Amino acid sequence: MSSALTSSVASRFENIVGNEFVRTEREALERYGVDCVVPAVAVQPLNAEQAAEIVKIAVQEKLSLIASGARTSLGIGMPPSRYDVALDMTRVRGVAHYDPGDLTISVNAGTPLAELAKILAEKNQFLPLATPFFGTATVGGAIAAGLDSPLRHFYGTARDFMIGAEFVDGTGAQAKSGGRVVKNVTGYDFHKLLNGSLGTLAVITRVNFRTFPLQPSRRGFLASFADETGALGFAKQIAESPLTPAVLEVLSPEFAELFLEEKSPVASLRLDVEAWTVCVGFEANAEVCERYRRDLSRLARTAAARDAIAVHDSQFSSLLEILREAPAAMSQLAAQSVVLRFVTLPGKLPDLVRALQSFASSSWMSSAILIRSGSIVYLVLLPRDGDETADKQAVYFWKSVGSLRGQMEFQASILFCPSDWKAELDVWAHADGTIDLGQRVKKAFDPNGTFARGRFVGDM
Amino acid sequence: MNAAITSELQSLVGPRNVLSSPEDLAMYEYDGSVDRARPEIVVFPSNTTEVSQIVKLAVKHDIPIVGRGAGTGLSGGALARGGGIMIAFGRMNRILEIDLENRRAVVQPGVVNFDLTRAVEPDGFYFAPDPSSQKSCTIGGNVSENSGGPHTLAYGVTTNHVTGLELVLPDGEIKRIGGKLGDALGYDLCGLLVGSEGTLALVTEITARLSRKPEAVKTLLAIYETVDDATETVTEMTARAITPAACEMMDGWTLCAVEDYVHAGFPRDCGAILLIEVEGLVEAVASQSAGIAEVCKAHNAREVRTAKDDKERELLWKGRKTAFGALGRLAPSNYVLDAVIPRSKLPQALRRVLQIGEECALKIGNIFHAGDGNLHPLVLFDPRDRSQFEKAVRASEEIVRYCVEIGGALTGEHGVGMEKSELMTLMFSDADFALMRRVHQQFNPTGLLNPGKVFPIGKGCGETRIRTSPIHSPVPS
């Protein structure tokens, strides 16, 4: 973007949002960088109308724009092929409409998740959107990033409880889909497309959710096993029982070592060094919680667990936070952490996990695994400090993953890795996606390609 | 349909699988709604390749196409509004794969909803979406309309239970989106296609989620003197965070008609009943039903009965699911509405519905999914009486407008179809339509696939909806 164009666009933005909300100095702009690509101007609208005006200018000037919230997950995906304008949505915040009696809420995109949680808790409700970076991430950012939550085992993902959205499309028009009621089949479900789209289709300005009542108790149960076969077998038995836990995760020994630290409130939950841990969470009244504890103890005995313990409310909250933050925390373990995410079928899980372990052990990197809800695998690769071949090892690992694709059903993506490795590491290499139909959707939403291209599956 | 095209279609699928005589076509001009539109020819393909070939032929000759399952829809989604070729999926009715380990089934679009449940029931599984027409409607139709049912309160509508689709695009190209994996990478195309009412592609295969049957089920019948007490109960249950699997309401007047029809033991002298079902672990069911009974009593329920066995439970549900049929016997014609309101506004909305009925001097029955605020007011009228007919049109439109005004939606589960295409402007702006049209254009650029649905085509509100049809009893979910 030429400096003349930058200053003319910045001044047009200033007319919309005021001088103090447009930034063009390098230092400020670097904070908006996406994979080291830095925009020429950053602008903070106050509301959806201003956001729409800004997008219209970007369209007119053929600029490339990326909307962001707290900028916690902007590293997901590939680097943008071009990036001129950072649209900072953090001022577009607050609750637009809350009907606790209907269990529905409509919230502006820049509202932090944690703030939303507080508002809901006052009415004894919550949103099962317990996604990473919870303390800072915004609602719109969480939807665009599409990260999942440990509560997905029972509550599903945002797609299951997002009932509508308002957004600015790639023509600068304010549009919407869905509504504020829990059941609605009026019109196309565009809000589903926004989930996990990395902002490549529209700027999310408001999201409507169905909310859920907080249950009297949220407790847990942990059991440890000598190997992954035992742990996965136990998790499978739970999934096949009448129990419907909210959380069902399996932790590798390395994960437990890294995250259930000695001094933390959950240190006592580290059952057994070298063991795989199954972590079950359930929410109900005391009587039903007791039934869970009883059944799980019995199942654990039958499955020859090494050890098992019941986890009470407050301790379970700490554990849930660790599981919620895991993908983010994995990425922060080292400067060169690589976090991979796999989606598979319960029946293919043991083979996939064994194959990944064998790839990891034949590299010089250490690794840790978290398995979510019998179908999602998070794996972090940790190169040794100062290992100059780390990037090559990661590329080799990623290629090995590709070699598995003919043998078992899964999709994989690299969630986080050092930005400069992405030249050699296509994070979407093992995603299927029906690219051409996706491109049709992109063309309809963003006909001029205003929302930065190159970041999403299929170069969108 | 000209003879050359008919013969081409016959050679594609075999002469026995093509219907073109006026008597045969008359059978396909209806669905469960009040609209009518006659196709020029009905074709029954037996596989995806044939579907694709039919579509290519239609495109070549510029002929509209519409897909059809069992024709039980309630918004005219499967009617041939533009004439042309109807692709009926009745012969594509095979369950292709049942994968219990991964809780998935792969089915052809013509598989009847309940047949899938029947196939997996012995192993303790079921397909969760349960429209009232589940014993005849097809899964392909459910996918097109994003169908619901009583138990969607707890388990969600069709879109929550579909992970993959095979599509034939309006140019004949065959595509797959999603698969058995729960959240595949890339845009959520299944989320877009499910509920797109057959306007973006024809669905030729569905990968569906299977759900595990709960350990325990309890069905409660709460009987009230007034409609207000029943609706207040629902509002308070929601506020108190009691989450039953289903919560249905019937008013006392409609209940008498239902009881005459099914003899389920419903009272004949009450203002309203709630039919509430709780599911889950034995202990959870016990505590939930105790909580529900307490709220019912606090709102003056005269009696709270629990179905003593499966037989009684099934009878109560039969009463609910056949209620619209029963009401069809009370007037020469009726019109069933489908709109959603916030559950906190249920009492005021029901009062307004009844008031509108009184203002128009029409009987309006109320049998609906109270737990998720999905109203189904049923307007009874005699189409031979012009003034009654006009009042019915006015009342229906006023109710829908009111529901949207108080924060609700045009349709909760029946779809927009032909029925509500003109009312779409109540909810959507020009910018919303512009985007919908661009998406439509990308998938269905010729507009030959299912024309005249979802988008307003400029006819007056209500005008095309209720017509002087013969006695007619739609069966909504």
Secondary structure layout plus pairing:
The complex is a heterodimer of chains A (about 450) and B (about 475).
Chain A: H1 3-17, E1 22-23, H2 26-30, E2 41-43, H3 48-60, E3 65-68, E4 85-88, E5 95-99, E6 104-108, H4 113-122, E7 125-126, H5 139-145, H6 152-155, H7 158-161, E8 162-169, E9 174-178, H8 190-194, E10 202-210, E11 212-213, E12 217-225, H9 228-240, E13 247-251, H10 253-259, E14 276-284, H11 286-302, E15 307-311, H12 313-331, E16 338-344, H13 349-361, E17 366-372, E18 376-382, H14 390-403, E19 410-416, H15 435-445
Chain B: H1 3-13, E1 18-19, H2 22-26, E2 41-43, H3 48-60, E3 65-68, E4 85-88, E5 95-99, E6 104-107, H4 113-120, E7 125-126, H5 139-145, H6 152-155, E8 162-168, E9 174-178, H7 189-193, E10 202-209, E11 211-212, E12 216-224, H8 227-239, E13 246-251, H9 252-262, E14 272-280, H10 282-298, E15 303-306, H11 310-321, H12 323-327, E16 333-336, E17 339-340, H13 346-359, E18 364-368, E19 374-375, E20 377-381, H14 386-405, H15 430-443
Parallel strand pairs in B: 2-4, 3-4
Antiparallel strand pairs in B: 1-2, 5-6, 6-10, 7-11, 8-9, 8-10, 12-14, 12-15, 13-14, 13-18, 16-20, 17-19, 18-20
Helix pairs in contact in B: 1-3, 8-10, 8-13, 9-11, 13-14
Give the tags.
A: 460 residues, alpha+beta, Uridine Diphospho-n-acetylenolpyruvylglucosamine Reductase, domain 2, Uridine Diphospho-n-acetylenolpyruvylglucosamine Reductase, domain 3, Alpha-Beta Plaits, 4 domains, five-stranded antiparallel beta sheet, globular, B: Uridine Diphospho-n-acetylenolpyruvylglucosamine Reductase, domain 2, 20 strands, 33% helix
Q: Share of helix among residues of chain A?
A: 25-40%
- Per the CATH scheme, the topology name of the largest domain in chain A is Uridine Diphospho-n-acetylenolpyruvylglucosamine Reductase, domain 3
N-to-C span of chain B = 35 Å
Tell me the major beta sheet of chain A: 8 strands, antiparallel
Mean pLDDT of chain B: 92
| Spans where pLDDT lies below 50 across 5 or more residues of chain B | 466-477
Q: Supply the CATH class of the largest domain in chain A.
A: Alpha Beta
Spatial ordering of strands, largest sheet of chain B = 15-12-14-13-18-20-16
**Principal-axis shape of chain B:** globular
Helix content of chain B: 25-40%
Oligomer: heterodimer
Strand percentage of chain A, roughly? 15-25%
User: Under CATH, the topology of the largest domain in chain B is which?
Assistant: Alpha-Beta Plaits
Unreliable segments of 5+ consecutive residues of chain A: none
